[in-house]
Specification:
This protein has 166 residues and is mostly helical. It contains 5 helices and no strands. The termini are far apart.
């Protein structure tokens, strides 16, 4: 369990029992960590991509990072809405992320595309399981948030994979 649940929840008038909110905060913080980690990995690809498709991929990777930054904010704000503490520093995200470490030897566009596609797939899997877990806690709003992020992550995974196919 993440350190977020070790901290007492702040009072709220939201009608979700505290025990449910604790589980939801933990789910959200896990997704926050992985999403923040993926955002930094997309920036790593953005800064270091080389090769024939440099400009196109440089722009794509920056767009991915920007989109992920928005999801980081949305996830963190849902944590605090439920009375939790958003575990959103780089160190916190690093300690809690389920994503594989980004390969520092990735240089060419295909290397970065493969690395990001692998990590987008990892995040997508986490988000799908989080949708179900949020529904088990009777929180359709958090489940909907996970669904929104999941839909976008799946679409971006398609974009990355399309570069690798054909």
């Amino acid at each position: 369990m993440s350190t977020a649940v070790l901290t007492k929840l702040h009072a709220t008038r939201i009608d979700i029992p505290e025990s449910n909110r604790e589980k939801l905060v933990d789910l959200l913080n896990k997704a926050l960590a992985a999403t923040f980690d993926l955002k930094s990995q997309a920036k790593q690809a953005h800064w270091n991509v080389k090769g024939q498709d440099f400009f196109q991929l440089h722009e794509l990777f920056d767009e991915l990072a920007t989109e992920l930054e928005g999801f980081v904010d949305t996830l963190a704000e849902r944590v605090t809405t439920l009375g939790g503490i958003a575990m959103g520093t780089v160190r916190m995200a690093s300690a809690e992320s389920i994503l594989s470490e980004y390969p520092v030897n990735a240089v060419g566009g295909k290397d970065h595309l493969n690395a990001l596609a692998d990590r987008y797939a990892q995040l997508a899997k986490l988000l799908r399981s989080s949708i179900d877990a949020a529904e088990e806690q009777n929180d359709k709003d958090t489940a909907d948030l996970f669904t929104e992020v999941s839909r976008a992550v799946d679409m971006r995974l398609w974009f990355l994979e399309a570069h690798l196919q054909g």
